[in-house]
Amino acid sequence: MSAGAPDDDAVETDGDGSADMGDLFDELEELEALVVSDAAREQVRETMRVAMEASAAASPFGRVIRGFDRGDLAEALLGALLFGIPMAVEGGTQEVAVFLAGHPGALGVTFCFAVGMVVGIIYVADIQDVRVHKPIFGVIPRRLVGVIGVSFLTAVCLLTVWGRVDWETPWLALANAVVAFVPMSIGAALGDLLPGS
């Protein structure tokens, strides 16, 4: 075995003795960090890309998902609209917004709850093996920003265009957007992950 090569004993398995695609990606990421030349690093990245395509062809669940592109954004938008259109036409949205506008703490908790749900669906629920790739400022996952951003902007735009909010009362309009954002963010996270792209 050459110096710096990954140890065969380091490969973790699912308990039944078999490794999965997540294990393969862990090993490839370790190898990418070890290789010195740019050509070798590019070869490892190409191998990761091929493995991702093979993973995508195998099953809609348990895939390794890395990066966040226009396709992912479109899937998140579709999920946000599917969950959000009923909220935009339902009168109960405005009733909840009136309550939240009078209780800023509850409004903040509602927003944080939605963000927490998105984090849970994407990174904790293990629907797919989601990898953080090129985070913003080295810390903030692009997928998280994309899913939250598209769902919140969709809520604001949909409610505004359909005349469900009046921005002359911005606090109440914001509360309406937050209420619609809750299911839209959940739909955006599921819409992004379930196709497995």
UniProtKB/TrEMBL annotation:
Keywords from the named record: Membrane, Transmembrane, Transmembrane helix
For the region Disordered, give the residue spans.
1-21
Which residues span the membrane?
73-89, 101-124, 144-165, 171-194
Q: Which domain of life is it from?
A: Archaea
Q: InterPro entries, per this entry?
A: DUF2391
Keyword presence, Ligase: no
User: Is-annotated flag, keyword Nucleotide-binding?
Assistant: no
Q: Please report a single Pfam family linked to this protein.
A: DUF2391
Signal peptide per UniProt = none
The entry's protein name is DUF2391 family protein
Q: From which source organism is this entry?
A: Haloplanus rubicundus
